[in-house]
Amino acid sequence: MTKQTIKETILAYLKDQKKKSFSMEELAEGLQLQKSADFKFLIQTAAALERENLIEFTKKGKIKLVEKGISVEGVFRGNERGFGFVTIDPEEPDIYIAKEHTNYAMDGDTVLIDIIQPADPFSERGAEGAVLEIKERAVSQIVGEFFAYSEEETAESDLYGYVLPKDKKISGLTVYIAAEGIRPVAGSIVIAEVTHYPEKEYAKSLEGIVKKVVGHKNDPGMDIMSIIVAHGIPTSFSDDVITQADQVPDTINEQDLTGRRDLRDQVIVTIDGEDAKDLDDAVTVQKLKNGNYFLGVHIADVSHYVTEGSPMDSEAYERGTSVYLTDRVIPMLPQRLSNGICSLNPKVPRLTLSCQMEISSDGLVVSHEIFPSVIQTAERMTYTAVNEILEEQNEETILRYEPLVPMFNEMAELHSILEKMRERRGAISFEDHEAKVLVNEDGQPQDIILRQRGLGERLIESFMLAANETVARHYTEKKLPFVYRIHEQPKEEKMQRFFDFAAMLGILVKGTKADITPKDLQRVLEQIEGKPEEIVINTMLLRSMQQARYSEDNFGHYGLAAEYYTHFTSPIRRYPDLIVHRLIRSYSEDLSEANQGRWSEQLPDIADHSSKMERRAVEAEREVDSMKKAEFMADKIGEEYDGVISSVTKFGIFVELANTIEGLVHINNLKQDYFHFIENHLALVGERTGLTLKIGQKVRIRVEKSDPETREIDFELIDSEEIERLEIKGSKGGNRKSRRRKDSGRQKLNNKQKKESNSSKPANKEKQAKKKGGKKPFYKEVAKKKKTKNKHKKKK
């Protein structure tokens, strides 16, 4: 192959691949140039292509095509201030899109962009682009509250009214509802189908038709239902799914036992929360004569009932996961299965997939078996009861479960061994403060309590981790297509920021940003345990981590310091777990290349879709949580609380209270001084007083505002813990007044713009129009435009 030929081959290969950047090794493998001489030739040719400005090297030393002057496709992520970013390659930095170059793209749209300014890795300046074309709209339906027009306004504008979206990402847009089809009453929560998208002169408006009325905003539970529907989470099962679920028997029969190992003579228990109804995992532990431990993890065999390609399977795939929202659960599977035949209820036989392990005193799995089985649990235990036995030594509870107490003690021993093993290998253990919002029958929040993780919760977690790792390792070693739960190494740029921040606090981190190990990071957490900087380091390190996801490729789990990891233990509520069970069944019956090839084709889409549905569920859960917390604080305006600064930004500080409620103290409301944001310290520093506000600092606040609609809580700073003050380099007090005047001027301008923006809302009708010299209100402009479009259609 000549140099010219290999140049063309490299360029063609880079252009054809979905992935945008490659290491030299990946490129050599893709071009089958892995021999020593070929590889050397490849490096020389790559250097020549770089000199010709046809390829470039990223910060990580990967090769990619020079993007200047070419059009590329990606996903647009909008910002409420008008600008946005486009993701081309998840492994590479996003491309910045200025407000004037968005071409009215909305969050999530697939767009074609032109790179108008390439990235400069040496100055750390990212690439800048302009949206040329919107290839695919992400939003076709919008959920929101309907505001009605009068009969006169409807006749004049040909519009029923307008809808304000519930989704915060598009909250700045207004959907005008055409006078067609369903006409809701004011205050209805509706699903509107979008018929016209933002365009020139109508950058903040859409047009649509109401397709469904979900309910009224004052209906009980409608606040949560609005969020559910806005995220596209289905709330009911189709007739086909219900019919299939109804056909599933309530009990197992003899035919179901064929090919299964009968474990009904073993002492096996479930351990869950008091309110759990879908009991999908059960365990047993026994200390062996050789000093090792026998651990049996038995998981409900959901794949026996939810068969591939069936209506229930298709529905489970679409949902991806069960969603847990304060007072309700939106299940992945019909309750007839999840709470019935697939739930490992006590003292009844149930079909399971079992992973039995022998574990050494060092916490290593020395042997294992994975097989279909039938079990019968001896008892339905709760975390509370197990904690009373193991931690509180409650005599009444111990007496009640006396035959099982020796096993629980051995469970505690094995958990301790497994926990120490994970610590030795460097698994990162973050302090988490999870809260639960308690609501009454009407959905009104009554209290917020911190979830306590006792020994019972932790030992079950240890056993599930052991089973997940064992199953993942088993199928990796067999080199069979599989689904993994992966957590990749943190990105270099985020690690660099963490290194710099830790260094500011006098904390030396071993390792380099490119290859730091979980053990290195765990040592950092151990160094600062119990110290004032513990909260801030925990927070910063957590923000430096990548998001865990599902993948057909095994990249290991960084946070757990695990070389192999999957999700095997919750097939009732997670689709990837169901797929893992199906893979185990499939490979036990057919190890042919054809079967492996079939799974190789399907698994990438399954993994990607499952990751997206998981993120959707998490977003919905967070929104509901934030809304209920804001609702809880709504009647506490003026009350004072102690809290800790959880985040510092250039626009203010976020303060977290003991019950995990978080609120913002905006920089404009920090009356103590004029504050500068010191980015590398993540601190605000007062210009005159030197008052320093940093993450982890204890403060006293007063509740100023709490809005469940926007899910925003505002605090006022009353007092703060005294800490070492930071210097403001290059700051002169004489400039403060002029800066304040500028800031005040900006605020006045913002207020003026807000007033003008509000006056353009259709609800203000013609009063504002008369004040502004007779200009028609916006809804009439939309109607006028619509009529003009209809005229054009008729002409055509």
Itemize the secondary structure elements and their pairings.
Blueprint (H helix, E strand, L loop, with lengths): L2 H14 L7 H8 L4 H16 L3 E3 L5 E3 L5 E8 L5 E4 L7 E3 L12 E8 L10 E9 L4 E8 L2 H7 L1 E7 L8 E5 L9 E9 L8 E12 L5 H9 L8 H9 L13 E2 L6 E4 L8 E7 L5 E8 L10 H9 L3 E3 L2 E3 L4 H7 L7 E11 L5 E12 L2 E4 H8 L4 H6 L4 H21 L9 E5 L5 E6 L4 H23 L6 E3 L5 H13 L13 H10 L6 H11 L4 E3 L23 H15 L3 H41 L6 E10 L2 E6 L4 E5 L8 E4 L4 E4 L5 E3 L3 E10 L4 E9 L15 H24 L5 H7 L6 H18 L1
Parallel strand pairs: 5-7, 10-12, 13-20, 14-21
Antiparallel strand pairs: 1-2, 3-4, 3-6, 4-5, 6-7, 8-9, 8-11, 9-10, 11-12, 15-16, 16-19, 17-18, 19-20, 22-23, 24-25, 26-27, 26-32, 27-28, 29-30, 30-31, 32-33
Helix pairs in contact: 1-3, 11-12, 13-15, 16-17
Keywords, separated by commas or semicolons:
globular, alpha+beta, disordered C terminus, 35% helix, OB fold (Dihydrolipoamide Acetyltransferase, E2P), Arc Repressor Mutant, subunit A, five-stranded mixed beta barrel, five-stranded mixed β-barrel
